[in-house]
Amino acid sequence: MSRVGESMIWSKTLSLQDGTYEFKHFLNTGWNNGEWPGEIPNRSMQVNIQNISLSIVWGQADGNYYIAFNIVNSSGQAITNANVTIDGNILYGSNILFPNMVPGTYSYTVAAPGYVSQNGEATITNLGLNIPITLEESSEPEFPVTFTVIDNSLIYENIVFRGSMTAWQSLAMTESPEHTWTITIDIPAGSYYWGAAEDDGSPEGIWLVPGGSTIPIEISEEGVVSGELSFAIPSISPEITFANLQ
Q1: pTM exceeds 0.70 for this model
Q2: DSSP string, 145-190
Q3: pLDDT tier at 89, thresholds 50, 70, 90
Q4: Statement to judge: residues 78 and 150 lie in one domain
Q5: Is 95 part of a structural domain of the chain?
C-alpha cells in the first residue's frame, strides 16, 4: 500500500472481477503483525459492476469485539502455560483470545506457575483490544510435590492432573508401573485443591475423584505438605447373572 502524503492514511487500488473477497491488513511483509489474531474472521467485501471505495480503520473488525493477550516473560519468550481469567472464564496459552465481547470495562487476572500474577482492567472502546503482558518470575520458594492416582478399575488410558495451583489446567500424568499414574509439580506455600480426570476428548473429560469432589492440601512455608496426595479409583465389580432353571 502507498502512504498518502505525511498522513496516517494508506491506500491501494486494485482491479477485481465481480464477486466476494476476503482480506485483512498486515504491518510489513509476511503473516505476522496482523490487525488482529487469526481467530477473528477476515474482512469481506462484495464487488459488482460499480467502482467501490472502502474506508477502514486498522484493528477494528466489523462487529467483532474482542480482547487478546500476548504473554511473555522478562526475556520476551512466550509463556505457554499461562492463563487469563475474565468474569470467571479461564483460557490457557501464551496468545489468548476472548472473542464475542461487548463494549465495557473488564477486570482480568494473568497467571502462570512460577510467575507473579498480574491484575488489570481492560476497556473496549474500539472493536479490538490487544494487551501485551510481561510476567516476572516469582521469588517465592517452590517445593516439589508428587501426586499419585491408582487405577484399580484398569480401564483408563489417559489420566491428567488438574489443580488450583495450575489454574485447573490439564497436565499429563506418567503411567509407571501399569495403572499407577504420577506427576511432580513445583508449588509455592499455600492452600490448594486437586484431582484428576480421564482425557476422553470431551471438554471436561471424566472426573475420577470418588464422589466427584476435589482434594484439599496445604503446603507450609517450610515445604511440609498436609492432606492427601493420592487416591484410588475403585475397581469394577463384574456383573453376575443368575438363571433359575426349572
Answers
A1: no
A2: EEEEEEETT---S-EEEEEGGGTT--EEPEE-STTEEEEEEEEESE
A3: confident
A4: no
A5: yes
